[in-house]
What we know:
Number of strands: 14
Bound molecules: 2-oxoglutaric acid, fe (ii) ion
Number of helices: 11
Radius of gyration: 19 Å
Distance between the termini: 34 Å
Amino acid sequence: xxxxxxxAYRDTTLQLKxxxxxxxxxxxxxxxxxxxxxxxxxSSEKRACQTRVEEExxxxxxxxxxxxxxxxxxxxxxxxxMFQVTNHDVSLSLVHDVEAHAQRLFALPADRKIxxxxxxxxxxxxxxxxxxxxxxxxxxxxxxxxxxxxxEHAKELWPNEYxxxxxxxxxxxKKMKSLAHKxxxxxLKALGLDEEDQEMTSSAYLYQSEGALQLNSYPSCPNPNRAxxxxxxxxxxxxxxxxxxDTNGLQIFQDGMGWMSVPPVSGALLVNVGDLMHILSxxxxxxxxxxxxxxxTRHRFSMAYFYGPxxxxxxxxxxxxxxxxxxxxxxxxxxxxxxxxxxxxxxxxRIS
Length: 352
Ligand SMILES: O=C(O)CCC(=O)C(=O)O
Ligand SMILES: [Fe+2]
């Protein structure tokens, strides 16, 4: 039987310290457990880089109905591994509805949210970021992960009125999936894929793909300079489509430039290349190293939709690349490698 995405994520057992978020409602000072120093980060040399404050080039905003959309997407992927899209056919009222549900969820009392806690070897539900176990300090963040139906955990949160939440999450995931299909096709065209690749990717990747929806909350923080909202990481699958509310916080790392802010653009959705796309493109498209910094006065919410091929399928550089730089890997194996080795996982697949 085919492996589902949640099964692929289920095999890492964590301690509860790495699952239960802080009760942010009751905290007025940054606790030692959440106060980071450079030494607490794996890539401390990157943390040491200053965030740029002067005028910086910004991530391209691409109108999906533009006649040159393939070229625009191709050059944004190559330069940034990231772009924002407008004319994406996802209604803003749906986006805001999902955001409002996320706000309602995270505003619940801590003892209620704990009822939907991710289990120690589980993939879905309420909890800290999965990457937390790699760091000695905890993040100023709480999340809720959905893969497929949200019913099981929504019932734990709202035993009598979970339906509206679930309907909204279902609608949003459907919309995200079809937008991700569309964007994947544009990216594959931009890569100039040949017939053989097209057959492989269009049948498997497009029609049996899998996705996960991650709701993120970063409450206002009493000492944002010493806290981290989400530690630096790359996303594992092919693409991520992100909505951020009107509160800054997301930053991407650019060689030679350091950390650069990616402020929200009203009505646009942000798309970023993940590790599997980096493999497929044989390194032409960079996987985006990003983090979130908390804000002293404002509460940031974001919704990230992670999109990947079926979990048992094989990902390898497209056959048009004469000198593949990665060995083929199944999605499931890659998720396992990432759970064990975090950012070193990609290097373990390098063959040249
Ligand atoms: O909140 C954000 O802007 C980023 C979220 C993110 O990177 C993730 O969920 O992987
Ligand atoms: Fe991410």
